[in-house]
């Protein structure tokens, strides 16, 4: 970054009327314009958190603890994609620190980032013709998030892992992960591509799915507080191929099983496959964070002064 450009950026950041919302507003507007123009009924809003290590910037104030002696800040992004996985831009962005200058208000948990991300999605969805799918990994397995208000054109898709009680709607059987799989109908197999260990791989998944109600914590009444209108898609990895060489790289010990809680329809095989396909696109937000930290960007090394 040249000196003149650095000084210009520093001046913008130092302006008393400048804040994060103003800086992002134009970008979010452009993101929504691209979303409206893209082909397909759905757009995927992938949420993920990254950590910036600024320990090397000795004069930077306001940093918090990331881990041990590593100091920096946290950033949570909502990246919008089309159905083919093409990034359209950001819908929301949050920053905070732990024991630093951007600490969350007292009593607020870091898990509130999912609800704030959902609020950003709801805000844009309310004026859009598209259907939005908010997609989260296992860190988003938060009961209050399942119950949070969503606009009518916003769907939920979260990879869950916690040992909660699940009620299978068709049979009223109550069980926990992973026992639920054996009680759900088989929807065949599907191939999807994801990024694993710094390379793209193609997974072969065995699919099962069914409508479920998620029970709350034990201190709440199940009848009053259980979720409604959600389904569970279980995608068990039974094969893995390198798409470049067609080499079989499946390892049963490392095979994953996705337990995907969603409000998307699952009435048909194509519906169920759409759920896993949308979840498989989530890795794009991780690659976005990787790109910010590497190559020509290297945001952890940038400075405005």
TrEMBL record:
Domain of life of the organism encoding this protein: Bacteria
Signal peptide start and end residues: none
InterPro entries for the chain: RNaseH-like_sf, Tn5_transposase, Tn5p-like
SUPFAM superfamilies per the UniProt record, alphabetical: Ribonuclease H-like (SSF53098)
PANTHER family (UniProt xref): TRANSPOSASE, TRANSPOSASE TN5 DIMERISATION DOMAIN-CONTAINING PROTEIN
NCBIfam families reported in the protein's UniProt record: transpos_IS4_3
The protein's name: IS4 family transposase
Organism the protein comes from: Planktothricoides raciborskii GIHE-MW2
């Amino acid at each position: 970054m040249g000196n003149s450009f650095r000084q210009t950026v520093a001046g913008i950041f130092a302006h008393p009327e400048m804040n994060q919302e103003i800086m992002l507003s134009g970008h979010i507007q452009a993101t929504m314009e691209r979303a409206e123009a893209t082909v397909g009924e759905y757009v995927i809003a992938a949420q993920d958190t990254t950590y910036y290590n600024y320990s090397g910037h000795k004069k930077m104030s306001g940093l918090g603890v990331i881990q041990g002696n590593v100091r920096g800040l946290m950033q949570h992004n909502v990246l919008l994609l089309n159905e083919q996985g093409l990034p359209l831009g950001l819908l929301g962005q949050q920053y905070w620190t732990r024991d630093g200058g951007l600490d969350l208000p007292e009593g607020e948990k870091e898990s509130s980032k999912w609800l704030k991300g959902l609020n950003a999605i709801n805000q844009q969805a309310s004026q859009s013709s598209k259907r939005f799918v908010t997609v989260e990994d296992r860190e988003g397995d938060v009961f209050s998030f399942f119950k949070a208000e969503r606009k009518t054109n916003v769907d939920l898709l979260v990879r869950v892992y916690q040992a909660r009680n699940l009620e299978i709607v068709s049979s009223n059987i109550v069980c926990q992960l992973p026992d639920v799989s054996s009680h759900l109908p088989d929807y065949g197999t599907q191939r999807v591509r994801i990024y694993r260990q710094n390379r793209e791989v193609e997974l072969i998944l065995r699919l099962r799915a069914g409508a479920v109600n998620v029970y709350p914590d034990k201190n709440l009444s199940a009848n009053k507080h259980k979720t409604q209108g959600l389904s569970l898609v279980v995608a068990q990895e039974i094969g893995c191929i390198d798409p470049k060489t067609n080499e079989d790289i499946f390892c049963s010990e490392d095979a994953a099983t996705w337990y995907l809680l969603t409000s998307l329809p699952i009435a048909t095989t194509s519906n169920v496959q759409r759920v896993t396909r949308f979840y498989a696109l989530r890795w794009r937000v991780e690659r976005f964070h990787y790109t910010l930290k590497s190559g020509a960007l290297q945001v952890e090394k940038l400075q405005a002064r």
